[in-house]
Each structure stands twice: as C-alpha cells, then as structure tokens.
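Morning run. Coffee first, then this:
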Amino acid sequence: MILKNKLTRETLEITYSEFRKKFVKEIRNAFESYCRTQLNKYSYNFKDDNSMEYNFYFQLQWNFNHFGNSIWYIEKI
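And here it is:
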C-alpha cells in the first residue's frame, strides 16, 4: 500500500497488515462514519454488522479516504 500525507506530501509504503496495525484508530473512525452514513441512507439493505463491514473493506481505499479524518490517505493499494 502507498499512503500519502496530505500536509507534508510524505509517502509511506507499507503492507496491508502494517496498515491495519498502525492506523487502527483512523480505520475505526472511518468505519463508524461509514456506518452512520449508510444507515441513514438505507438501513434495510444490511442484515447484520458483518455485511456492512464487508462492504466497507471491499472499497477500503475510497471509504478510508472519504469517511476518515486522517492526515494520511491511501494513494494505491
């Protein structure tokens, strides 16, 4: 994965597992924001939390970049 800092334009190249360990808080915040947004749109579409989590990680790059409040964004997976 290639991540880029929005402020300093620093580039960070890490593996997916390192990303999950290093950005736990940012991923959690993005997921919570994603859940609130999706449930306000159409809650009938999600039968349980697993389907919502699956949809979040299926488009991780877009969801992390748009729902997260981090100075880092995913440039490439």
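The radius of gyration is 13 Å. Good start to the day.
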